[in-house]
Design brief:
This protein is 47% helix and 5% strand. It is mainly α and 111 residues long. The protein has a domain at 41-111. The two termini are 24 Å apart.
């Protein structure tokens, strides 16, 4: 059974220079032979599978960056006024590991 992942909403601190809020939404179901094609042509299915794999790789890179810099990011956000951060490093690590396992699943092949 696939695990559902939380979305993480983050508003960049004003001093970061970033202009847009961003949302990490790794909720997706990777394309695999078991998912079927739902009436799609081979080319359509392949294109969607490639997009999904690229998105999953991107999400994994974001997860890895946040995991590797969690303490720094958390401290920076709190210093910038985000005092209500309730996500612990342990909780994030659990989600990161589960997503990494899914993204690196040998039954899911990326083109």
């Amino acid at each position: 059974m696939a695990k559902e992942y939380r979305s993480f909403y983050m508003q960049p601190p004003a001093m970061s220079g970033l202009q847009h809020d961003f949302v990490i939404k790794p909720k997706r179901k990777a394309f695999s032979a078991a998912n079927g094609r739902d009436g799609l042509s081979s080319a359509e299915y392949q294109a969607l599978a490639e997009i999904d794999c690229l998105q999953m790789k991107t999400d994994l890179q974001v997860y890895e960056f946040i995991y590797n810099h969690f303490d720094e990011l958390s401290a920076s956000l709190k210093q910038s006024g985000f005092n209500d951060i309730s996500l612990s490093k342990e909780d994030f690590e659990e989600e990161y590991r589960a997503f990494k396992d899914q993204a690196e699943n040998p039954n899911i092949t990326c083109m």
